[in-house]
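Two proteins, back to back. First:
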Amino acid sequence: MKKILSLLVLVIAFSACEDDATFNNPSVQGTKDGAFWRATSSYATVVGNTLTVTAVTPFEVLTLTTSSIEPGVYTLGENNSNAATYSFSADGINTEYATGSGLGDGEITIETSPAGTVTGTFEFNAPGTGGTVVNYIDGVFYHVPIQAAQ
């Protein structure tokens, strides 16, 4: 009897277990100014050979631009062909941050990914208005779909 009761308890315990794994595919996320940040939607476009990854939340837009779609490391802050921008807009507050020629620093790394998507990593410091700087570290964009340029 004890064996049957023990078996019944085990069956009930295991049947209550559930796999709650969720997948963020595609996803753009990272650590912004020391706090976890994740986009609610993202997409990429290719115009010529220029790749642009755009990630948005209700009040924010993060844009990563590289001079090529090819896998590799693209340095930010040296020219305008490789750049990162971040904007925040809510309640009449509009703030823009950007890397560019001599401004900010960081890098975008494009990795190999399935056709029609782009995957990679990013980190950057981008100056904004009033001398403030936005900092992203441990940034990842994963299987972001490449859409037709509009």
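And the second protein:
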Amino acid sequence: MEYLGVEIDKFHPLAQKKQLTFTDLTGLSFLVVQDIGPWRQVVEDNIPDASFLYQEDLNTMGQISRYSSFPFFFSNLTQANKATMKRLCQR
């Protein structure tokens, strides 16, 4: 079973919450891997007024996520990916 998580900058007010809903994420801008699979439609349909900054290249995604405070999505399956873990650990 796959689940979707969101990494939020530790200084963002939402980072203090243990659990988030899509409604909590309303209006935010997200850094997103272009090939996010079925999750793309899920987040686009369920996060009102959000902006999605899609990135094709994982290296580019890693660079942007290291030097920005944009939230980004990950799944329990992508956590096994070195690039994803590097982004999560550098926050």
